[in-house]
Amino acid sequence: MNRPSFAWKLYIAAFYLFLFAPLLIVAIFAFNASPFPSPPWRGFTLEWFTGSGSVFGKPGILMDPIWLDSIGNSFKVAVPVALLAVLIGTVNAWVLERAEFPGKTVLAMMMLWPLVIPGVVLGISILAFFSRVANGLEDWLQTDLDMLRPGLPLVVLGQLSFILTIATLIIAARLRKFDRSLEEAAFDLGASRARVLRTVTLPFLSPALIGAGLVALLMSFENFNTTLMLVGSDAPLPITMYGQMREGATPAINAVSLLLMLGVGGIASVFALTSKAGR
Amino acid sequence: MMTKSAQRLTLFLLLAPAILWLGLLIVLPHVEILVLSFSERVAPRVYAFGFGNYLEFFTEPLYWRTFARTAGMSILVTALTLVLAFPIALYIARVAQGRLKAMLLLLCLLPFWVSELVRTLGWMMILRETGVLSYVLQATGLTAERVEFLYNDGAVILGLVYGGLLFMIVPLANALESLEPAVVEAGFDLGGSRWTVLRRIVIPHAMPGIVAGSIIVFMLTVGNFATPVLLGGKNGLWFTEQIYAQFITRFNWPQGAAFGMLLLLLSSAIVWLGLRLTGQSLGTTLKQA
Amino acid sequence: MAHSTDLDLVNVIKRFGSHAAVNDVSFSVAPGEFFSILGPSGCGKTTLMRMIAGFEHPTSGDIRIRGQSMIGVPANKRPVNMVFQSLALFPMMSVGENVAYGLTCRGVSRAEAEERANRMLERVGLKDFGERRVTALSGGQRQRVAIARCLVLEPTLVLLDEPLGALDLKLREHMKIELKQLQSTFNTTFAYITHDQSEALVMSDRIAVMNQGRFEQVGSPRELYHNPATPFVASFVGETNKWQGEASAASNGSVSVRLPSGTVLQGQGKEANKTSLAFVRPEAIALAQDASALGALANRFEGRVSAVLFDGANSSLLIDTVGFEQPVRAVLPQAGPLAGIEVGAPVHLGWTADAMKVFAA
């Protein structure tokens, strides 16, 4: 098994080619000087990134309000999701690793459920539930509660429902590895409980906190199924892309995809660097 | 030391976020769609408890056929993904060393982090009649006209397998990692051929990873929305599309809720079946991934 | 006000459920003393130490530091500091930050804390180590950082929880001497727990031997070694020969012990007419080539050397002796007429009645 056959190595090379072919094609055609995202190649251009629309009729993504708004919406969702995921994930991890109470195993199991529920079902369930809540509260309070209707706040809630599970697992795994005698030593040397947390426990956890935050950010940015069910008039990036892909797109969609790939690559590198530093 | 009641209060505060999260975002919403699924429209704006939505599912061929097709094709996709991923996982886990290994693994993970829509866009650009494949065939003279490779089952399966590969490789590689080289060598030493060793030693050892990977891939495939719709078009006919249609297009929430419950049931049944097969708990299986 | 003892434990009991891990322990430690608690795993010594540090609470009894009761005082407010078994150095801080940690907790300014930490590091032989990472240190250096971290706070009492366990033999021997020197240089009171009797004997002013939650004997190393009070202490501290038989005829502390093989031994003990255990240290056994040289000894036997266990200064002989089921262990002579004695050689052995301690089994 340690001397792989030529056929095997060929397969592996072909595999990785297969894996990256679609992504490479998307990236290359972002620079195609053509109004359509398809061959033939008509020359190199940056129009689809920074163009004002004079050349092909449609502006590049960095000048087009549709795309800019969409990217903005994605951030408006992803940042709160990441922050809440880290915060609540830490509290959950603490409960799982440090607290004892009846029903703890049941709670731990329930925290895993969101991962086995299809995203579409997560979406429709939250849509239906908050609709009912909104209807009820609106009658009672005699005001409109747009926050609970399809829109960005609801998207945040929908994404949190399962991203919280992942964040909790990442942070809990790190907390489990923590040598508690370090906390005792700090306490023994005179630190208050708060100080022990601040100077000993949290620094140890920080790689996991950053990791969980980055993972949450990425998962929020690229989420589609759940978001689709909860979106209102403000569309995050994947929804806008989906709409364009159904109706017909310009290479602007390639440009946005390339930016996404670079952004992901950038965040993944940061992630890799911080997790090495945490060793 | 804190007093008993101070301890209780702290515990309560620590538990509050988890309870709010699980209660308001998971439990109650699913109770809501369960209740909705049993809401039959007996008169305009009047709803009563009934099985009408589920009856509708079983009697209307479009619905149950789509469901069966989704389930069947998902099994096919899972099997294909397993077969394609296994040699890669084997290579990464057993043959590649050090930096090569880390790099190969990282390369597998990168496409996952990019959105599903970008991946699907890539395949659309390759397969559609104005796409790269068609262009190459025309340019080399193999075909006279543009060829449409999209909007058929093959394209959908291709897209779904592509998306699933990443989730199959990681659990498989993890499971294969733990196989002692000495055990494999003993297999050869005692006279086994490469095929025998694979079949009787390597694959059984990798079983937990195979099951974990298969459960995950099946779950994600059955619940996929964008890939079948974009790559299959009208011929996509994936069940998630039906749910979307009922909820968003037709605003028939009770019907959509019934479909949602059915999808959830299918997904959960497979997960449960898979867990029973390996005798593992949900927690340990997810740790493999 | 100067108190005569730094640490007092009064009838301390710790129960976990129905099991008493510490079962009515009382003792005092004088200022500047190096006091060790010696016992096998599970005897309760770690629980005892954690109660003194403040991480566990006694079920009943009192713990006093310089006369002040510590019951209800949390661990971070006690004038006691602990060197943990794993050392528990903070990996996210430098060596200097580790040592300065306790000072910063007390509100000492950064600059002053750093200065005092550096001075302490110098005193433990780690000059200019302040900037180094904790992970880049050797075992012995980590030890010294852990101790410096405690000593810089000038505690009344330093607790050490088997700190030498992770070190290899040569380093351990070296650290035993270092710890002893550090303790006397700083004149801090040390309370040391270990299962290694050699550590306890070499370093301590007094030792408490602990077994199953109780102190079996408290005394100086020599007292414990030469005058063990219980069979457990006799066999746990130092090497010993041990035989079981029936004791009879006690008078003035003299006892005869009859072994199952019929051999009768003369020893020192109190109990008679009971199943008893008799102990003799290997170095108390005299060896000679003919029996006349051992004429005055109460116990005289002959045998054949069955094994020579060479271990430098700790060498011993195993002698198959007439009337004994197991070989008798004696010290290997490395000078004099019997030096170079080999396996199979005949030899005469004997010991005085004083050298043999007899206890009820």
TrEMBL record, chain A:
InterPro entries (UniProt xref): Bact_Polyamine_Transport, MetI-like, MetI-like_sf
Record's keyword annotation contains Iron: no
Protein name as it appears in the record: Spermidine/putrescine transport system permease protein
Residue ranges of the TM segments: 12-31, 77-95, 107-131, 151-175, 196-221, 252-273
Keyword Transmembrane helix in annotation: yes
Subcellular location: Cell membrane
Species, as recorded: Microvirga flocculans
Topology in the lipid bilayer: Multi-pass membrane protein
UniProt keyword terms in alphabetical order: Cell membrane, Membrane, Transmembrane, Transmembrane helix, Transport
Automatic annotation (TrEMBL), chain B:
Origin superkingdom: Bacteria
ABC transmembrane type-1 domain ranges (all copies): 67-274
Subcellular location: Cell membrane
Family matches, as Pfam families: BPD_transp_1
Membrane topology, from the record: Multi-pass membrane protein
GO cellular component labels: plasma membrane
NAD is among the record's keywords: no
Main location: membrane
Transmembrane annotation, as ranges: 71-92, 104-126, 155-176, 209-233, 253-275
Annotated SUPFAM superfamilies: MetI-like (SSF161098)
Residues spanning the signal sequence: none
GO terms under biological process: transmembrane transport
Keyword annotations: Cell membrane, Membrane, Transmembrane, Transmembrane helix, Transport
Family named by the database record: Belongs to the binding-protein-dependent transport system permease family. CysTW subfamily.
Record-given protein name: Spermidine/putrescine transport system permease protein
Origin species: Microvirga flocculans
From TrEMBL, chain C:
Alphabetized InterPro entries for the sequence: AAA+_ATPase, ABC_SmlMolc_Importer, ABC_transporter-like_ATP-bd, ABC_transporter-like_CS, Mo/tungstate-bd_C_term_dom, P-loop_NTPase, Transp-assoc_OB_typ2
Alphabetized Gene3D superfamilies for the sequence: 2.40.50.100, P-loop containing nucleotide triphosphate hydrolases (3.40.50.300)
Keyword Ribosomal protein belongs to the record: no
Organism: Microvirga flocculans
UniProt name for this protein: Spermidine/putrescine transport system ATP-binding protein
Top-level taxon of origin: Bacteria
GO molecular function annotation: ATP binding; ATP hydrolysis activity; transmembrane transporter activity
Single GO BP term: quaternary ammonium group transport
Annotated GO CC locations: ATP-binding cassette (ABC) transporter complex
Family membership noted in the UniProt record: Belongs to the ABC transporter superfamily.
Keywords for the protein's UniProt record, in alphabetical order: ATP-binding, Cell inner membrane, Cell membrane, Membrane, Nucleotide-binding, Translocase, Transport
PROSITE patterns: ABC_TRANSPORTER_1, ABC_TRANSPORTER_2
Coiled-coil intervals, chain numbering: none
Domain ABC transporter: 7-237
